[in-house]
Structure formats: C-alpha cells, structure tokens
Design brief:
With 212 residues, the protein is mainly beta. The protein is built from 1 helix and 12 strands, in the order ββββββββββαββ. It has an 8-stranded mixed β-barrel. The chain has a two-stranded antiparallel ribbon with strand order 1-4. A hairpin with a 4-residue loop joins strand 11 and strand 12. The longest helix is centred in the C-terminal third of the chain and has 4 residues. The radius of gyration is 28 Å and the shape is globular. The protein starts with a strand and ends with a strand.
C-alpha cells in the first residue's frame, strides 16, 4: 500500500510596511504672547491587578495526545488489530506497517481532537491479507471502535466510503488538523498492476464520532 503524505503548500503574504505618521511641526506663539508651556506626557496607567487564572501570564499546560492502540470494524473483518504510530518515509509517502499492524499518522490529529485521525494499513502484504483487506466491504452506518492507550474506548460511525486514483487523494480533507473530529481509514484498492506490483487506487472510509 502506498499513500501519498500531506503536502505543505502556500506561504504567508509579506507583511505590509508599518504606517508612519510624522510628528506635527511646532507652531510659534503669536508676537507679544508668552509661549505655551510644553505639553506633559500623561503618566502611564497603573498595571491591572492579576487575579485568578483569567489574568495569569502562564500558558495553559500542553496536553499530550492519547494514541490509538487497537481498532475494530466488524463489517470489514477488522477485529482488535493493533495500531502503532507512524510518520513519513524519506520519499514523502505515508509509512505503512507490515501485514500485522495498522499505522496511526502521528503527525496529524488524534482521537478526541479537531481534525482527522488517520489510520492506514495494507490490503495485502508478503503474500498475506492485510488488516484492511476487506475495508471496501464497509458501508455508511457501520460502527467503528477505537481503543486508546489509556484504556478508554471511542466509538465512530462510517459516513462515506470513497475510491481515489493514486496521487489524487484529497490531502486537505484527509490530513486536516482543523474542523470537526473524524476518523479516516486508508488502504489500497481498485485494479492491480502486476508490472509495478501495486494497486492503482486508494480506498478511504470516513467516520465521525457516534453520539450513541
């Protein structure tokens, strides 16, 4: 399974030059009249009294993400498959574990946080079926259970199953770390090209938290 990793694009526009307002020229006093006294700058306001956490200068403590530990999707024959964190290969492609594990893209979002928690696995590898061999059999409405490293359980429900050609994954949707929480499952699918020993498409299942 080969999945193109997220690509960072765009750059911030150059900041506009600061607005500079010249000081007004001194106006001489009319003849025969005393010159006005020089203006006195007002005293700076007294600092506000810091009371309570609202006014604290200390930043909020960072909360480490809770990693997913195992995945269950009964309709796709995924039964408590182990999940481990992965990153990107030197080629920029998403790292995929062997046929025994599912990879969680640790550089993206995590369960319970905004954006997409991305899990990827092989459909087949080393002449063996991969964890997502039957992901294409899943359908909207199917439940998904994700067990986290702290022992808690998060439940999702599939809302969409999509198939994209290799190189045409909607990265802005799949790898987004903003917006509503969602779970994204990715594997290979479509036709198999024996000359390069790769599938030509990717299968993607999108799931959202199940309030039930």
């Amino acid at each position: 399974t080969t999945v193109a990793g997220p690509v960072e694009t765009g750059s911030a526009d150059a900041a506009p030059p600061p607005l500079v307002v010249p000081a007004p020229a001194a106006i001489p006093a009319p003849a025969g009249l005393p010159a006005p006294a020089p203006a006195v700058a007002p005293a700076p306001p007294a600092p506000a009294l810091a009371i309570g956490p609202r006014y604290s200068a200390l930043p909020e403590p960072a909360v480490a993400p809770i990693a997913p530990r195992s995945l269950r999707v009964e309709s796709a024959d995924v039964r408590d498959r182990p999940v481990r964190p992965v990153g990107l290969e030197s080629s920029g492609e998403l790292e995929i574990p062997d046929e025994t594990e599912i990879g969680w893209y640790r550089l993206g979002s995590s369960p319970g946080r905004p954006g997409a928690t991305v899990l990827a696995a092989h459909v087949s590898w080393n002449r063996s079926l991969g964890p997502f061999a039957r992901l294409a059999a899943a359908k909207p409405g199917d439940p998904v259970e994700l067990t986290l490293a702290d022992g808690s359980l998060r439940r999702y429900r599939i809302i969409e199953l999509a198939q994209y050609p290799k190189g045409a994954l909607p990265s802005d949707r799949i790898f987004s770390t903003i917006g509503d929480e969602r779970l994204v499952l990715i594997t290979c699918g479509g036709s198999f090209n024996p000359s390069i020993r790769r599938y030509l498409d990717n299968i993607v299942a999108y799931a959202v938290p199940d309030p039930g």
